[in-house]
Design brief:
- There is one protein chain.
- It contains 11 helices and 11 strands.
- 35% of the residues lie in helices and 20% in strands.
- The strands form 2 sheets. An 8-stranded mixed sheet has the order 1-2-3-4-5-6-7-8.
- The chain is of the alpha/beta class.
- It has 2 domains: 238 residues, Aldolase class I (TIM Barrel); 69 residues, Arc Repressor Mutant, subunit A (Orthogonal Bundle).
- Bound molecules: iron/sulfur cluster.
- The site of iron/sulfur cluster (SF4) has 9 residues, from loops.
């Protein structure tokens, strides 16, 4: 097996900082989902890896690239990283050499139903769980899971995990036009998110790269409208902007305050959403301290000063 494509990066990820990636399936796609939006080519789903790296091989490669400028070591794969059967041992070995660097996994959540995976993920410093849909029919249409995966059980485990996990927990929802972007599904997702505890951030995104199947994403404006449907207590963040179309809309001062009150936005969000005149008035609101900046994880949000004082109800 090729060794030189196990480690990739470091990539300066806006969401997670300077990230050094470990690809646990460098040779080809091995996944228990076959998502419509996957940036990898379509492939038959599997429930275990057939092509398995040795832990020592990964550690040897990691040692060559690890340095103190790396914020996170990200466990990922061409496919689903939790299918790697030696994940627990790998995490233990990384812990021995990582020093201050944190560990992160990007997973589709399905394997949380396996006790050993669930327990291994508890050991990581950061976990990002994807949850695109909670209704069985929509989940099956978007994520096209391996036959024995049951979304109700996955959701149950995501909730349980959030209650026990001590690290930084992120949730990601990727919206596909005409599938999980309905009011009804957003309402169901919202209900599940409100049951989670200790979530650092919920990233809402859409298709940013050419998808495996002929599906289309939703616009930045649609993502923003969806973000407003979620409960205001949730730490929602609009993550998809690579091909985001600027919205360039005019907002009055009152509309700026109301918008940011309902959903704090980052500078990048603001660049996409507001027109130039609105941005100038936003700066004035910051100068007059009607708006303040608040850092959550690696991101800086603009938020009305009044909002910080108010205790939010879940
Ligand atoms: S879970 Fe990730 S790797 Fe697997 S099919 Fe979906 S997008 Fe692709």
């Amino acid at each position: 097996m090729e060794k030189n494509n196990i480690i990739f990066g470091p990539i300066n990820s806006r969401r997670f900082g300077m990230s050094l990636g470990i690809d646990l399936s460098p040779a080809f796609k091995q996944c228990n989902f076959d998502c419509l939006y996957c940036e990898l080519a379509p492939a038959a789903t599997v429930d275990k890896q057939n092509d398995v790296l040795e832990v020592q091989t990964i550690i040897d490669e990691l040692k060559k690239h690890l340095n103190d400028k790396i914020d996170v070591i990200t466990l990922t794969a061409n496919g689903e990283p939790t299918l790697y059967p030696k994940l627990d041992k790998l995490i233990n070995e990384i812990d021995k050499i990582k020093a201050q660097t944190e560990t992160l996994i990007l997973t589709n959540s399905a394997n949380l139903v396996n006790e050993s995976t669930f327990n291994s993920l508890l050991k990581l410093d950061q976990v990002k769980l994807s949850l695109d849909a909670v209704s069985d029919d929509i989940f099956k249409k978007i994520d096209r899971p391996y036959s024995n995966i049951n979304i109700d059980k996955v959701v149950e485990k995501v909730i349980e995990f959030s209650k026990i996990y001590k690290g930084k927990l992120f949730i990601e929802i990727l919206f596909v036009h005409g599938l999980n972007d309905t009011k009804d599904e957003v309402k169901r997702l919202n209900k599940v998110l409100l049951e989670l505890e200790h979530i650092q951030r919920v990233d809402l995104g859409s298709i940013d790269r050419p998808p495996a199947y002929p599906v289309v994403g939703i616009s930045y404006k649609e993502l923003h409208d969806i973000s407003l449907m979620f409960d205001a207590s949730l730490p929602i963040h609009i993550a998809s902007r690579i091909h985001a179309e600027p919205n360039n809309s005019y907002y009055s001062n009152e509309e700026i305050i109301n918008t940011l009150d309902k959903r704090p936005l980052t500078k990048d969000d603001i660049d996409l959403l507001f027109d130039d005149e609105t941005k100038i008035r936003l700066e004035k609101l910051i100068e007059s301290e009607k708006l303040v900046k608040k850092t959550v994880g690696n991101l800086e949000f603009y938020i009305p000063e009044n909002n910080l004082k108010r205790k939010r109800q879940k």
